[in-house]
Amino acid sequence: MPSPSPSGPPVLPISEHEDEIVAAVEANPVIVVIGETGSGKSTQLSQILHRRGYTRRGAIAVTQPRRVAAVSVSRRVAQELGVSIGEEVGYAIRFEDRTSEKTKIKYLTDGVLLRESLSNPELKQYSVIILDEAHERSLNTDILLGLMKRLIKHRASDLKVLITSATLDGLKVSNFFSGCPVLNIPGTIFPVEKFYSTDRPTNYIESSLRTAIDIHVKEAPGDVLIFMTGKDDIDKMVSKLEERIQNLEEGSCMDALVLPLHGSLPPEQQVRVFSPAPPNCRRFIVATNVAETSLTVDGVVFVVDCGYVKQRQYNPSTGMYSLDVVEISRVQADQRAGRAGRTRPGKCYRLYPSSIYQKEFLEATVPEIQRTSLAGSVLYLKSLNLPDIDILKFDFLDPPSRESLEDALRQLYLIDAIDESGQITDVGRLMAELPLDPSLSRTLIEANELGCLSQALTVAAVLSAEITLRQTRSKDMEGKRKRQELPDGSGWGDHVQLLQIFESWDQADYDPRWCSDHDLQVRGMKFSKDVRNQLSQIIQKIAKGPTDLQARRGRKSDPEYRKLRRALCVGYGNQLAERMIHHNGYHTVGYRTQLVQVHPSSVLEGDEYGKLPVYVVYHELINTTRPFMRNVCGVEQTWVKPILKKLEKLNINKLRYESHVSEMVIILVSLIQC
Questions:
Q1: Angular region, 122: left φ>0, alpha ψ -120 to 50, beta rest
Q2: Residues in CB range of 464: below 8 A, 6 or more apart
Q3: In what residue span(s) does the Helicase C-terminal domain sit (predicted)?
């Protein structure tokens, strides 16, 4: 198959600074590149260094905090170089690797690079590592910054590190890396006129809708970028905007095309967003904050900014997540506005007063490391087992809270990843090799011992695919009928139901029509299948039994799924709840007691008296109208006893301070206390 014709790199501001960049890279192990919107840093830096010979002794790795950006930017670079994805240019995201031995420029998520460092701590396969979009301050990027600080001391002669961003505090990062150079690359930003609302609208979707229609009717040609908080808001906005445009008087304005843009969008729909608009047609792109900096949509002249973002927050004192709509930062607001000035002077409509922008918005987004569970990150750092990581040499740009670190240690102890004194166990090392949440990793390892690995792989794949399986969640009778025909989990809960659904699809030979007939999202199911295949390959080296679904066909089923539920009990030993005596409410068991309820969507059933199981494990706690356990499974009291014994022996001081272990945690706690 012939390679695509190269489109050639566009003329972007960064091209004028090529010699300056190469000279700085040549003279320094680390440089910071602050590239304004439209400078070309994400697509051109890797090509510049490739052209200048930096791929002769290793590949160039370019990290992105988002999957969609890693894929789209790599495709753009491949197009400019005239190569197919997977050849000279490729990408690697969780559960998908489009690279080969030929690959010289590799775009990958920050999490994938962390996983690669487990098997190769020195990352010898790379001559250059570019941490792109570092201003987003994702958890994995912050860990990588600390890892790079260590790496350059060991590989100063043959490794170059570039930290790039549109808005990052360059001086702060420079100081973190002992005063490394900071290069500022201007972007192609035309003037953007900003319009503020007189007050905050009560309904930002309706206000955004009215603003978009006003632009369409009154303004000159040019695409419109509308920022929403998440997929649900985007779906509502797309539907309402299409309806409102159809109701406009024919001939009163140009044609319109409404397109969504978010992280879980299928690749074929992403292509439409980055393709030029048809003649005499205005595009409306309704996007999450993925369009702030990670992805650039050409042709945008107008921006509608609702001033909000949906942010996942973790409370270590309760172990509970909440998905909150919060105000954006001033940095985010400026990035959004800048999207209107990429190709010509533009306009940004801010649906909030200027006083809110000046006085209420934070300067920058709170780093993810300060608002998420750290269990997986602590496990990763412990598994590195590097002797030179000591109290003086490992640090973060912004340290996490002491409470979050202690919460992570307790979680890992309860699922056997670390022992009483904080040392990583053999089980913990196996867990770290799996690209999963620690609870799911522990479940797979226990399932392997109990002989139900195939079942557990299916459950882990569906949960970690992070895609809603339900098609429409429609409330009509037809949708309800389709869902009622799905397996019910045999009363044991949601994990069992997910397994039964997937196995039923397997029995139907993965026919997409089976998904549609049961109101299931075809893409979500297919992705879960791909994830399962990837996990099966990863776990083969420790598997004690078959991992393929076909091995289960025709086998007599365990009607109570006892082995699977027991494996889940061990894996979710840090997420256990006990039923209240007089009703079906629960309280969480452990070092943080919380009154919770089973989520209304759960298929968990009670006994003949209506009583739910005494003990359950859950995949996550979420706080919506009240605290709910989501994805719940009933477990037996005898399985819970070892967990209760571990709780009795839990001593946080031993986990934190034992002299011969947990250097990383001592380091972080020391930083916090300074």
A1: alpha
A2: 436, 437, 440, 531
A3: 208-385
What tokens does 51 get? Answer: 């052209």
DSSP per position, 615-669: EEEEEEEEESSSEEEEEEEEE-HHHHHHHHHHHHH--HHHHHH-TTS-HHHHHHH
Number of Cβ atoms within 10 Å of the Cβ of 58: 18
CA distance 385 to 89: 32
Query: How far is Cα of residue 332 from the mean position of the Cα atoms in its chain?
Result: 18
Report which residue type is found at 533.
Answer: N
pLDDT per residue over 588-620, tens digit each? 998 788 899 999 989 998 877 778 999 999 999
pLDDT in tens, 85-134: 999 999 999 889 999 999 999 999 999 999 999 888 899 999 999 999 88
Could you give the C-alpha distances from 446 to 346, 534, 543, in angstroms and in order? 57, 19, 11
Taking only the tens place, the pLDDT of each residue in 531-564 is 999 899 889 888 777 777 654 554 556 777 999 9
Instruction: Give the CATH number of domain 13-185.
Output: 3.40.50.300
| DSSP 8-state secondary structure symbol assigned to residue 470 | B
Number of other residues whose CB lies within 10 A of the CB of residue 503? 18
Question: Domain 192-366, what fold?
Answer: Rossmann fold (3.40.50)
The DSSP string of 6-55 is P------GGGGGHHHHHHHHHH-SEEEEEE-TTS-HHHHHHHHHHHTTTT
Model pLDDT for residues 76-88, shown as the tens digit of each residue? 999 999 999 999 9
Region(s) of the chain under CATH 3.40.50.300: 13-185, 192-366
Q: What is the pLDDT of residue 657?
A: 53
Strands 89-93 and 223-227: unpaired
d(CA 30, CA 520): 48
Place of tokens 């690995």: 453
Q: HSE on the CB side for 598, CA within 13 Å? A: 27
CB within 8 Å of 465: residues ≥ 6 apart: 95, 524, 527, 528, 531
Helix segments in 195-275, DSSP class H? 204-218, 231-246, 267-273
Return the number of other C-beta atoms located less than 10 Å from residue 625's C-beta. 6
| Residue partners of 72: CB distance under 8 A and separation at least 6 | 270, 274, 295
Write the DSSP symbol of residue 486.
Answer: S
DSSP-derived 3-state class of residue 586? strand
Residue that is written with structure tokens 């024919």 in the block = 250
Can you tell me whether residue 332 is helix, strand or coil? helix
Kindly give the pairing relationship between strand 30-35 and strand 160-165.
parallel
User: Is the separation of the CB atoms in 443 and 464 below 8 Å?
Assistant: no
